[in-house]
Amino acid sequence: MLYDRTPGGAGFVQEARDRWAEVESKARDMCICPAACERACYECLKDFGNQSYHESLDRNDALTFLGNRAVSTGPGGILLPIIPTD
Ligand SMILES: [Zn+2]
Q: How many angstroms separate the alpha carbon of residue 69 from the centre of ligand 1?
């Protein structure tokens, strides 16, 4: 479920729905960790604002949820995007 935390709403959910492909693409990008961490770190998913969820964050689970057909695992476990050839 997505919701806007601004009282009365600020239109972010509506805009996200209208630009859902970009939202999914950015979410996948966030799961590609430059530090190639196991689950989540401050290089990818963790930040001060989501610290109460740090134990639950897992970039691999997130990619599975998003449909991980667009990524593969490269050397060192780094997730690499697959660029369509056609
Ligand atoms: Zn990371």
A: 20
